[in-house]
Amino acid sequence: MKKHFLISVLLQDCCSIFKGSFCLLLIAFLISACGRNEVQQSINNSNSVPFTFCNATSAIDNSALAEAVLLSAKYLESQVKENGQFVYRRMYSGDQKVRPGYNFLRHSGTIYAMAQAQRIKKDLNLLESMLSAGDYLKRSTIERLAGQPENILAVWSKSELTKSPQATSTKLGGAGLGLLALLSLEELKPGNTSLDTLRGLGEYIRFMQKTDGTYYSRYDPIEQSFDQDFTSLFYPGEAALALFTLYEFDPEEKWFESGLSFLLHMAKQRLAEPSNYNIIDHWSLLATQKLLSQFSDKLEQESYQLITDHALLNAKNIVFELSKIADRKSLDLSTGNVNSLGTQLEGLASVLPYLPLRPEDKEEYCKSIILGGKFLLDAQLKEGDTAGAFTKKPIWHPEFKQGLYNAEIRIDNIQHSMSAIYWVHQCFD
Questions:
Q1: Which pLDDT value is given to residue 2?
Q2: In whole angstroms, how far apart are CA 373 and each of 370, 418, 424?
Q3: Backbone φ, ψ for residue 266 (5° rounding)
C-alpha cells in the first residue's frame, strides 16, 4: 500500500509539472522498479483518489460520510419499481400532491451515483436494482435515428413516458448520462450491455458535435434537425465525461478526441474573460477529473494549462458559494437548495486532488469541502421510510415550511448529494 501511495504521489506531482517525454520516462522507471501491475493499479483507478488529499480531521467523520452514501443507496434501491423505473418524486409528508413527470437524464444519473456506493461496499441487492433500472433505460429509450447511420443510437425522451408537454426529442445529456449509467453497470457486471450499444451512444455524442468542439444540445428525431435555439450548460460536460469513460472501456481515439476538443474550447472561451465568468459547471469538472486522473500523460503542456486553469476558476466560484453556508441558520433561498450545493460539491471534491494547488490554497479548499460535507450530512433524512433521502431544502431550513415543494424528495436531489458525499469521503480516505 505504501509503495502504491509513493507511486501515485510521484506521478501526481511530477507528471503535472513535466509533460511529455519526462513523464513517460518516469513511468518507465517506475514500471521497471516496481512492476507493471503495481503502476497500472496506481494510475488506472479514476473512481477514487489514490492518495489522501485532505488530512484527517475531527471536523468531519469519514466513516459517517461512507455510511451516508450507503444509506442513500439503500433508499434509492427501495425506490426502483418492478418495471425498473424509479419513484421519481415524492413528498416528505405523504399527504401532499406530487407533480407528474419523469426525467430520463436523472434516471441515468441516479444509476451512476448508485455505482459509487458499490465502490464503498458491494451489495448484490443494490446491484440487482441498478441492473433493473438499466434494463428499463435500454428497452424504453434507446433507439436509432431515422435518416442517420445505423451505428448511431440515441436516448429518446418520449413525451408519453416523461409526461411532458414538450414533444419527443433526443438530448445530448440523455446520451451522455445514459452511456455513463451503462458503463457504470458494465464495471460491476461486464457484458451487461453490448459494445455496439455503448459505441452507438458514443457515436450519437460525436454526431452532435460542431466543428469548433461544442455540441448541439438537442436533436428532433421527427423533424430530423438540430435544435438551434436550446443550449444546455451541463449536457456537454456530461457528454465529455461519458466519452472519457467509454475510452477506458473501448480505447478508440475518436472518443478521447471528441471529449478533449470540447473541454479545450470551453476553457479558452471562459478564460478569455474570467472576471465575467461566474458559472458553476460541475459536470465539466467531473469530466476534467476523469481526464486528469486517467489521461494527463496524453495532454500537451498548453492543453494541460488551459484545462487546469479553467477548473481552478470553476473551483473558486464554488468555494465562494460554499462560504455562504457557514451559518446554516441564516441561509437564504439560493444557498439553502440541497441539490445546488450537492452538484457544486461533487464537482469540486472530485477534481481538487488533481489540480496544481499551493499548500495554503489546498488548506482553504479542504475547509470548504468539510463545510459542504457537514451541510449534506445534516440535511440527509435519517429515519423512517425516507432514511437516506434529501428534501429540496433541509427540514431545519428556515424556508422549509414556506414553500410547498421545499419538502419534495426527487431522485436527483439524492443523486447529487450522495455523489458529493462520496467524493468528499474520497478526499479524506
A1: 30
A2: 5, 10, 7
A3: -60, -45
Give the cell for residue 326: 457557514
How many other CB atoms sit within 10 Å of the CB of residue 102? Answer: 17
The rounded distance, in Å, linking the Cα atoms of 13 and 30 is 14
Residue 23, all three cell numbers = 513523464
CA distances from 322 to 169, 280, 336, 343, 351 (A): 35, 12, 11, 12, 16
**Which pLDDT belongs to residue 359?**
87
Cβ-contact 411, 389 below 8 angstroms: no
- Cβ-contact 189, 127 below 8 angstroms: yes
End-to-end CA distance of the chain: 13
Measure the CA–CA gap between 133 and 97, rounded to whole angstroms.
25
Q: Identity (one letter) of the amino acid at 414?
A: I
* Whether the predicted pLDDT of 254 surpasses 50: yes
Q: Are 189 and 131 in contact (CB under 8 A)?
A: yes
Which of 245, 237, 231, 242 lies closest to 266, judged by CA?
237
CA–CA separation, 310 vs 265, rounded Å?
11
C-alpha distances out from residue 188 to 34, 62, 111, 181, 191, Å: 28, 24, 12, 11, 10
Q: What is the number of H-type helices and E-type strands within the chain?
A: 16, 7
- Alpha-carbon distances, residue 136 vs 131, 308, 328, 392 (angstroms): 9, 37, 39, 26
Residue 99's CB is within 10 A of a number of other CB atoms, namely 12
The 3-state DSSP class for residue 306 equals helix
CB 70 within 8 A of CB 114: no
- In this prediction the pTM is 0.86
Determine the average pLDDT of the residues in 284-300: 97
Domains defined along the chain, listed by start: 45-428 (1.50.10.10)
